[in-house]
Recover the amino acids of this structure.
């Protein structure tokens, strides 16, 4: 560590001498790895910007650009209900007098991250409205659009029960997340579980109600996956005013069971019976014709959600779809990142070189990008924004998305001046985007801070939300200097 500090000090001293400018007041956290890059007056400035680091959700910028370049802003996901050829004639359903439709029904899922249980219900209702009461055949849930893993390598196992790690399956219903809430009881007693919207999940709990001041200090709430969409809660929850329930969102563990259970619920609610049962198929089965379809919002709007909310499911569904359309075969994580690299090189001239990617969301700790990789993406976005219109849908400091409350961009001076994508993982905090300077120049910039760690007592205070991480001071210092169009140096 001492060698690193001495080398860093020597490097920065040389930089300060060569530029003749004053150094920052704020310094990176001791032991952290930092990369900074930005351009001013057509010259690149920064430090360590060719080093490969964990990008976290700043990687979504690559997914956004590649998808809009290749699929186009008006691309839509189409989830359709298909009927077998024996079930219709001359474009009309063949329904018996007692309302029986003979033949299998297929729902073709395509990884639409916007698709809901209400959408699925409307597909089946299209049959109900024509007088169908009984399906003499099977209901097949086709998930052949994607193949391979639903979660990428390098996702944290401890995060898997949580909604932001929802599995990127072709079958997506309600964001592949299920809501419930814990209702506090008297202090020292077990909280009660209430499942919302009749979600087809099982949740058991031994979580105890504690005083608000004891939560996080003495215990936290933990979730374990017991099996197929079954979860167990332990630890504690705080007793809030008026016994306010504690909301929870679980990531679906088994998308296939999730789809079967939701389909069964919907058919029951519509009084539609099925003689052959409900099953999932992984191969595209022929002999069907489309009957009803649900279109997603246009891709541009889905990309906006992905960037504003830093939504991992949207990112990985879009990335896998890029892979599907590029290679014309079932989409996978491997094809997704291979296609993104190829598209950025072919259409934008961006060579990612030694970058390592395993997903489209940046959620994996295996991903490695350099600040220069991200800077090249931002430079292309800036130069082509008249057609891309991507800058308009990035979060804005103090105004929208993940930058609305970020400590480093608070204050009237920077409100609306930082337009960027955040990126956070354990011990990682990044920012990549644009700064509107005091002279109204649009400056692309990247700040990557990895290996962030603290003394144990400070870490506990940060976890308890009593203090903000001190790394934000360095980030704010860099942003402010770029805003003021200074040539940065560091000490």
């Amino acid at each position: 560590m001492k060698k690193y500090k001495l080398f860093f000090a020597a490097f920065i001293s040389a930089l300060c001498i060569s530029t003749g400018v004053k150094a920052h007041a704020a310094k990176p956290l001791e032991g952290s790895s930092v990369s900074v890059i930005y351009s001013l007056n057509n010259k690149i400035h920064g430090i360590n910007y060719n080093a490969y680091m964990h990008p976290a959700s700043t990687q979504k910028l690559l997914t956004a650009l590649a998808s809009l370049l290749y699929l186009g802003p008006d691309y839509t996901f189409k989830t359709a209900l298909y009927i077998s050829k024996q079930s219709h004639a001359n474009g009309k359903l063949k329904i018996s007098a007692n309302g029986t439709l003979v033949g299998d029904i297929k729902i073709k899922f395509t990884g639409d991250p916007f698709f809901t249980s209400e959408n699925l219900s409307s597909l089946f209702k299209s049959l109900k409205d024509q007088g169908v009461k009984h399906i003499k055949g099977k209901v097949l849930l086709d998930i052949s659009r994607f193949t391979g893993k639903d979660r990428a390598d390098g996702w944290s196992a401890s995060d898997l029960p949580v909604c932001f790690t929802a599995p990127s399956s072709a079958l997506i219903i309600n964001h592949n997340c299920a809501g419930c809430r814990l209702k506090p009881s008297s202090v020292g007693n077990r909280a009660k579980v209430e499942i919302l919207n009749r979600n087809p999940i099982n949740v058991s709990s031994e979580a105890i109600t504690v005083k608000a001041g004891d939560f996080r200090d003495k215990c936290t709430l933990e979730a374990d996956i017991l099996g197929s969409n079954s979860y167990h809660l332990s630890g504690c929850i705080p007793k809030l005013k008026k016994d306010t329930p504690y909301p929870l969102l679980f990531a679906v563990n088994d998308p296939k069971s999730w789809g079967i259970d939701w389909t069964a619920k919907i058919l029951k609610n519509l009084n539609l019976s099925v003689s052959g049962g409900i099953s999932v198929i992984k191969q595209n089965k022929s002999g069907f014709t489309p009957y009803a379809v649900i279109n997603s919002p246009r891709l541009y709007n889905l990309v906006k959600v992905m960037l504003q909310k830093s939504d991992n499911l949207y990112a990985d569904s879009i990335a896998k779809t890029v892979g599907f359309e590029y290679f014309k075969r079932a989409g996978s994580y491997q094809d997704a990142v291979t296609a993104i690299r190829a598209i950025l090189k072919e259409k934008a001239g961006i060579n990612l070189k030694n970058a390592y990617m395993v997903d489209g969301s940046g959620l994996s700790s295996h991903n490695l990008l350099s600040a220069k990789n991200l800077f090249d993406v931002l430079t292309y976005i800036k130069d082509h924004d008249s057609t891309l219109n991507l800058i308009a849908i990035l979060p804005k400091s103090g105004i929208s998305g993940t930058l609305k409350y970020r400590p480093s961009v608070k204050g009237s001076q920077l409100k609306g001046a930082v337009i960027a994508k955040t990126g956070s993982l354990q011990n990682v905090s990044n920012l990549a985007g644009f700064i509107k300077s005091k002279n109204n120049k649009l400056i692309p910039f990247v700040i990557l801070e990895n290996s962030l760690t603290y003394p144990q007592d400070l870490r506990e205070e940060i976890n308890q939300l009593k203090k903000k991480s001190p790394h934000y001071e360095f980030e704010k210092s860099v942003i402010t200097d770029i805003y003021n169009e200074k040539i940065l140096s560091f000490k």
In short: The longest helix spans residues 2-19.
